[in-house]
Amino acid sequence: MTNYLDFERPLAEIEGKAEELRAMARQNEEMDIEAEAAALDKKAADLLKDLYKNLTPWRKCQVARHADRPHCKDYIEALFTDYTPLAGDRNFADDHAVMGGLARFNDKPVIVLGQEKGHDTKSRIERNFGMARPEGYRKAVRLMEMAEKFGLPVITLVDTSGAYPGKGAEERGQSEAIARSTEKCLQIGVPVISVIIGEGGSGGAVAFATADRLAMLEHSVYSVISPEGCASILWKDAGKMREAAEALRLTAQDLNKLGVADHVIDEPLGGAHRDREATMQSVGDAIQKMLGELSGRSAKKLVADRRKKFLDMGSKGLAA
Q1: Phi/psi at 110 (5° precision)
Q2: Do residues 305 and 212 lie in contact, with contact meaning Cβ atoms separated by under 8 Å?
Q3: Which H or E element spans position 14?
Q4: What values do phi and psi take at 114, rounded to 5?
Q5: Does the global pTM surpass 0.70?
């Protein structure tokens, strides 16, 4: 069953009517409704194309958060082989919001990391809705150190509304853990590839996305704060999230122009959730391309180029 977003309600009505006709035909084989159903299908396809032709930043936020969108676990299962999860930060606990471990990508050994939001009520609670605690970022640091020790590329899959803001997380050094993870991304002498697969929120995303190459799915978003949070601070009204989304320039297209995102990965019409397999294949192709761009570089050059990339960030957009 398709989950429709608010702005897709007209589409839901048309596709619902087509499905009702086909359900009636299945119950009464003498009914000939194919022509009428096909006409509704065409109308729905045209409307879908029109809806997604020029999505506003706020609507892109909604698509990026869609519950049926492929998550980190889906990408790992689809694109990586011999995945061996590694748990815990060797200090406090294992954070289930962060997945990570050894794997093979196109038969080459890598370390893969990412935030997992979960797909149903039980798994979302277990994964804390993809909001990592300090031990999640410390686990990421541990795995990045392992990657450097064995000369393995690091691939991160980012999908989080932000780091968990709870009392316990703050007591255990949330901001310090995020800073250490960001620092480690900048320091390691192996290729670091990051893909924003949904929502890249605040420092919780930066701690995984400080990479040599950053790709974003077409309808993903990446920002220092959520539109609702920004609106609450600036206008004391979370209902102004649409205006905030415009101002934040959080879309893949804006960030590509600013030099923050290196690549924008096309999504199927209607978003990644409408053709999960095609989306995951496109992400795999993009990862392979980015790894190829970094192939053969020494550890010293990787670190120097990564540092320069972030020091120069924003100059591309300002010059324009």
Answers
A1: -145, 170
A2: yes
A3: helix 9-27
A4: -175, 165
A5: yes
Domain boundaries, the chain: 6-51, 61-319
Give ∠ CA 237-58-131 in degrees, rounded to 5. 80
Residue at 129: amino acid letter:
F
The per-residue pLDDT string of the chain (320 residues; one tens digit each, 9 = 90 and over) reads 678 999 999 999 999 998 888 888 777 766 677 788 889 989 999 999 999 998 999 999 999 999 999 999 999 999 999 999 999 999 999 999 999 999 999 999 999 999 999 999 999 999 999 999 999 999 999 999 999 999 999 999 999 999 999 999 999 999 999 999 999 999 999 999 999 999 999 899 999 999 999 999 999 999 999 999 999 999 999 899 999 999 999 999 999 999 999 999 999 999 999 999 999 999 999 999 999 999 999 999 999 999 999 998 866 555 44
Helices (H) and strands (E) in the chain, counts: 15, 8
H helical segments located in 188-275: 202-209, 227-234, 241-248, 252-258
Task: Write the burial class of residue 276 (CB in 10 Å: 0-12 exposed, 13-18 middle, 19+ buried).
Answer: middle
CATH of domain 61-319: 3.90.226.10
Name the CA dihedral angle for 44, 48, 50, 51, rounded to a multiple of 10 degrees: 130
